[in-house]
Amino acid sequence: MTRVMSWGEWFAHDGTALAALVRKGAVRAEELASQAAEAIAAVNPKISGVVEVFDDAVADATVNGAAPDGPFAGLPFLLKDLGPTLAGRLQEQGSLFFKGHRSSTDSFLVTKMKAAGLNIIGRTTTPEFGCCSSAENPALYVTRNPWNTEYTSCGSSAGSSVMVGAGVLPIAHGTDGGGSIRIPAGCCGAIGLKSSRGTFSIAPYGSDFTSVVSTQGCISRTVRDTAAFVDACRGGAPGEFMPYCRPDVPFTELIARDPAPLKIAVSHEWGPYAATPHIAAELARVAAFFESLGHHVEWVVPKVDLERAYAAQTTCYITNFAQTVNNLLRAKGVSEPPPDLIEPMNIRIWEQGKDASYTERADMQAVFNETARAFGAFYEEWDILLTPTTARETPRIGTTEYLTLSDNPSALDWFGNLWGFFAYTPLSNLCGTPGMSLPLAVHENGLPLGMQIHTRQGNDGLLVQLAAQVERAIAGKWTLGRLPEVHVTKLG
């Protein structure tokens, strides 16, 4: 199939603009899918972000059920290989143990994606079970940062982030249980929104009530694409444990106007963790930029017992991931994780958490409650909290201390070290509050550095509205107008 536009034109169109071309009859959805597949074929050998392309979905944009009359009009889209399932397609969760697993049903969110007109043409890389800082297991794949392939993309929505970062697609799916949308988006120069609890369904396999910290979403390169995705895909399935909120004004309308002047608190010293001097300096620069937009900006640390919060978060992760592994073992009739098929830290997490008591979980929930109430009180006074997305520099490929390939004998110590890197993302998951990473800064080594805006639960609209104001102020030139080393506009 003939390419329908140059790579420069391809990158100049976001998902909303490409969908508009389809609706006008200027291009067909299959032509967009073909060009996306060509981009994947050219870029993927360098950064390993896509596990599989669905050739039949490239040839026929409706084969997976995408509605041609949906707002995205057959736009090619990639699904992270973790979380929502697509009936009849493989979902291997970044694990040798799960290799060959084929899903039997669509998850509820996938039905929403289809109705939105998103043509799912493939699946993207993730670390094993999403429990790690990056998708980096040489036995499967090593996902690399398009800005410098000697560095990781971070994760766990690794493949989706590198594909959006490299301009292959304007938008892709991600999941976020502790920063897994925001962190790789920040590392790869993309926009990542972790929505409030009660926005996206994880039915039929679980609910926000039982999952506690994990949510779904997207990674994009324009605010309006993120807004359109949330508008189209939010909502609960029948039988949810909790109500799913819907805003009075759709996000796609809300972003057309600037927010009123806001009170923005800025901080990076969170309990035992703080940003590097360079990241702190970039935070100060971005804070001054927000002030130039007419907002009141002040350096304030939330009055939260952060050490207790991180400890409770560790308990949550260890016990949640232990049961994830347990359920997979039961499904295959295996009593213990096979060490040749499951990564060593995931085995240690299973050993640490498989026999956790109800009392341990109840104590954890008590701290979750204290933390959420403390942040809730904070957001009574402040509209927005501004932090970096990460506290440390993006690691080079092969830095095992953050990987589930680590030889660290202690799962507790491993998580503690992880929080030192990802200090500012996991507590939003604990509290159920939204956070959004924007590609506004740069690391000392030249890689992108995300800056994160947070707000109270259910106030996601304010985040996208503020992000849209920023986008207009910078004339859409995220990442300071720079492009990565690996990018579609650099293809022949």
What does this molecule look like?
The chain has about 500 residues and is of the alpha+beta class. The protein is built from 17 helices and 15 strands. It has helices at about 5-10, 15-25, 30-45, 55-60, 110-115, 160-165, 180-190, 210, 225-235, 250-255, 275-290, 305-330, 345-355, 360-380, 410-420, 425-430, 460-475, and strands at about 50-55, 75-80, 120-125, 135, 140, 145, 150, 170-175, 190-195, 215-220, 265, 295-300, 385-390, 435-440, 450-455. The strands form four sheets. The chain has an eight-stranded mixed beta sheet, with helices on both faces. The model has no long low-confidence stretch (mean pLDDT about 95).
Quick synopsis:
By secondary structure, this protein is α+β, with helices and mostly antiparallel strands.
List strands and helices in order, with pairings:
Blueprint: H1 7-12, H2 15-24, H3 29-47, E1 50-53, H4 55-59, E2 75-80, H5 108-115, E3 118-124, E4 136-137, E5 141-142, E6 144-145, E7 148-152, H6 158-165, E8 171-176, H7 182-188, E9 191-194, H8 208-211, E10 215-220, H9 223-233, H10 251-254, E11 263-266, H11 277-292, E12 296-299, H12 306-331, H13 344-353, H14 358-381, E13 384-388, H15 411-421, H16 426-431, E14 435-442, E15 448-454, H17 460-473
Parallel strand pairs: 2-3, 11-12, 11-13
Antiparallel strand pairs: 1-3, 4-5, 6-7, 8-10, 9-10, 9-14, 13-15, 14-15
Helix pairs in contact: 6-7, 9-17, 12-13, 12-14, 12-15
